[in-house]
Amino acid sequence: MRTIRLVVAYDGAGFAGWQRQQNALAVQQTLEMALHRLTGDPVTLHAASRTDAGVHALGQVCVFHTASPIPGERFALAVNALLPSTVSVQASCEVAQGYLPRHNIAAKQYRYLWYTSRMPNPFWQTRAWQTPFLLDACLMQQAAGDILGSHDFAAFMAAGGTVKTTVRSIHYASVKRQGSLVAFNVVGNGFLYNMVRILAGTLFEIGQGRREPEMAKILAEKRRVEAGVTAPPQGLYLVQCWDEPFAADSLDSIVLFP
Amino acid sequence: MRTIRLVVAYDGAGFAGWQRQQNALAVQQTLEMALHRLTGDPVTLHAASRTDAGVHALGQVCVFHTASPIPGERFALAVNALLPSTVSVQASCEVAQGYLPRHNIAAKQYRYLWYTSRMPNPFWQTRAWQTPFLLDACLMQQAAGDILGSHDFAAFMAAGGTVKTTVRSIHYASVKRQGSLVAFNVVGNGFLYNMVRILAGTLFEIGQGRREPEMAKILAEKRRVEAGVTAPPQGLYLVQCWDEPFAADSLDSIVLFP
Questions:
Q1: Which of A103, A118, A147 is the last residue of a domain?
Q2: For residue A162, is pLDDT > 80?
Q3: Contacting residues of B for A120, CB less than 8 Å apart
Q4: Are residues B118 and B46 in the same domain?
Q5: What is the C-alpha separation between A92 and A74, in angstroms, rounded?
């Protein structure tokens, strides 16, 4: 059996998240059904991240095993012809047997987007957290700097997460404004359940001036109750995944805005 | 009766166009129903442009007459609370009796967007003409320059248009690339039926190198068959409308990309 690695983009608005569900349509089964039609065999996908309902992806990574003779790079175009337009494979290749995104992906970039405007914008309704507050991106940027490096992110994990350790390393974190958009971009070696959305919710309160830029204090307290709200899913994007540990020269590949 | 002017944005993907329909949902009746609920009286809207099904607006202008005592500027926020998130009033004000967008709007900006990529992008499926061709924006820009000024645009009008004259004045026309996006922005005193989409279809063929940058020749021929295809609706945006004739200082207010 061969192992095929896919880079997948999807608009999360119409899906019950990445993971296969009994009574709702997930991205995983949409893609598995298309690959089944293409290869003739049942396909099971293993992804880098189980994104929640409403969360988007520009560069989710997943793999499957197949006996199909289709060349690795050809899967992308071939399967796109069988997918709804809300899901699109951006690239495909054959990788070594045993490659598994959950183990092999060394760093991931997430983005959280706010659209700040007194009037709602129809084009961002399912793609950003729309808010009439004019967020102070400088204050948010200052706070985001505090999460760089290795920290215990216990305060930024939703209840129900089961992990061996709540320590994660953040390689890049920034908040920038571009017109009405404010983007929080973060790269790390891993993320706890809802971690980016709780970081975004906390930054949102800081950007409104309702909370001091006190990330270091919240990290030290290690209690969920000290952090901010969980930001809604529609502002969150899984931007890209790296197989190699994040190095200084990877910084060039970080895209800050859509 | 008072006359209230609205600036309206809508995502055209879910609508059968601006104009009220018998068996499909149009933007006009969506907005009229919300205004009816707000004011208690039946409302009829008059718009600057009857956008086709799938066409978007960032700054459609329309008016209605009402006896409601709500201050002009308050209508925007009040009616947004009653609208689906795909339609949003950006601004409202009271104007002089007799103001009618079809007569009073002196210039309009349209934008046509292409998303150029070998792989389709789920986020642009209903918001651009997706194409695997790498369009030559310089050639397209050169051709767009030929439509500046007053011309007979008969070659760029769809069959069925009934107008006194097919002469229109174009104040601004450009084609620019930003990453995978290519945008044709055009400002004129008026546009014939499907004129921007036929201009876009012609520019598309020029950008692919399938046609010479021969806009001047097509204008001179004045026959629809000489121009290119009608570009699909999802790439078209009504960007803004001006009450005053377009002057040099209005150039600053032209936004070229979303």
A1: A103
A2: no
A3: 80, 85, 88
A4: no
A5: 7
Helix segments in chain A, DSSP class H: 27-39, 75-80, 101-104, 137-145, 195-207, 215-221
Closest residue in chain B to residue A179, using alpha carbons only? B258
Pairing between β-strand A129-131 and β-strand B181-188 as defined by DSSP bridges? unpaired
For residue B242, the enclosing domain spans: 106-246
Statement to judge: residues B18 and B52 lie in one domain: yes
Count up the domains in chain B and report the number: 2
Of A88, A103, A118, the residue at which a domain comes to its end is A103
Instruction: Specify the pTM.
Output: 0.95
ipTM passes above 0.85? yes
From CA B74, how far away is CA B92, in angstroms rounded? Answer: 7
Q: Is B19 on the interface with A (CB under 8 A)?
A: no
For the domain that residue B12 is a member of, what is the CATH number? 3.30.70.580
Establish, for the pair of chains A and B, how many residue pairs have beta carbons separated by less than 8 Å: 57
Shared domain for B43 and B128, answered yes or no, is no
* pLDDT tens column, B66-97: 999 999 999 999 999 999 999 999 999 999 99
Q: Please list every residue in chain B whose beta carbon sits closer than 8 Å to the beta carbon of residue A127.
A: 123
pLDDT in tens, B123-159: 999 999 999 999 999 999 999 999 999 999 999 999 8
Determine, yes or no, domain membership for A50.
yes
Give the Cα separation of B238 and B169 in Å (integer). 17
Whether A127 contacts chain B with CB within 8 A: yes
- What does each C-alpha distance from A18 to A11, A55, B105 come to in angstroms? 11, 9, 47
Domain check: are A159 and A87 in the same one? no
Determine the straight-line distance between the first and last CA of chain B, rounded to whole angstroms.
37
